[in-house]
Design brief:
Blueprint (H helix, E strand, L loop, with lengths): L5 H11 L11 H18 L4 E9 L2 H6 L1 E3 L4 E11 L11 H9 L9 H17 L4 E5 L4 E5 L11 E9 L12 H19 L15 H22 L9
Antiparallel strand pairs: 1-6, 2-5, 3-6, 4-5
Helix pairs in contact: 1-6, 2-6, 6-7
Length: 246
């Protein structure tokens, strides 16, 4: 049966370890922490853990005073900051260069080539890049701040829009198929086994009634081995997100 909830993932991993036939000596709080750890690793390193998004932010007076814009917790990295767009109006007037090019050269796409228009626009874009450049920025996910090195209040004003390109984590409560991901289920099970082995290590060698001997060291070693193999599986197929490479 497909796993579609956090609790379902927990039950799946415990069953893989032998529950309810075998008593799993791990506290529920420890299990919750290991699931959080698995999700964090999944988000940062798995190819399905994040999605690329374009986020628009309307500048407020507080942003101008702070000289940064706030970023939500689910943004894991920023690739670039696009040009700033005025918030008042985006319509073109008849004296705008693009308007004139379209009016004079693109009045009939069936008989007019767009090569000239494309060449001119590429040339203008190159001039804009050389003369104006792109906004420089600094981003740290732990501060939830996107610092943009511009002249706040002049280059950007209140109600203008700043658009940036970044990566957003996938919310498993919204996209529940994450809980049924094969890698995540195996990794969670491995973390549970490591925790179980850690809890039993201090009782290693203790003989229970019936001649059963606890071997926490073996459980721990098996869990670490499975965990390492799963992490190597990701590193072999998919490099970390570009902003994670130091």
């Amino acid at each position: 049966m497909p796993v579609s909830t956090r609790e379902g993932l927990k039950e799946y991993a415990l069953k893989k370890l032998g529950a309810p036939v075998v008593e799993i000596n791990v506290d529920d709080g420890q299990l919750e922490d290991r699931i959080d750890e698995a999700l964090e690793y999944f988000t940062v390193y798995h190819w399905d853990g994040t999605e690329r998004v374009y986020v628009s932010h309307q500048v407020q007076n507080a942003d101008i005073q702070n000289k940064y814009i706030p970023v939500s917790d689910n943004i894991y990295g920023v690739n670039r900051v696009f040009a700033i767009f005025a918030g008042s109006s985006t319509s073109k007037n008849i004296f705008d260069l693009q308007y004139q090019l379209r009016l004079n050269d693109l009045y009939d796409l069936t008989s007019t080539s767009i090569v000239y228009y494309t060449t001119v626009m590429n040339h203008l874009q190159l001039l804009d890049t050389i003369l104006n450049g792109k906004p420089l920025y600094r981003f740290n996910r732990l501060t939830n701040r996107l610092n943009i090195d511009i002249k706040w209040g002049t280059a950007v004003k209140a109600n203008d829009y700043i658009i940036y390109d970044g990566y957003r984590s996938i919310n498993p409560n919204t996209f529940t198929k994450i809980w049924d991901d094969q890698w995540l289920k195996k990794y969670t099970t491995a973390l549970f086994k490591v925790q179980w082995g850690t809890n039993l290590k201090k009782f290693s060698g203790l003989e229970l009634p019936g001649g059963v001997t606890l071997d926490g060291d073996k459980l721990y070693a098996e869990g670490i081995e499975e965990k390492t193999k799963l992490e190597e599986e990701l590193s072999g197929k998919n490099a970390p997100l570009e902003f994670m490479v130091g």
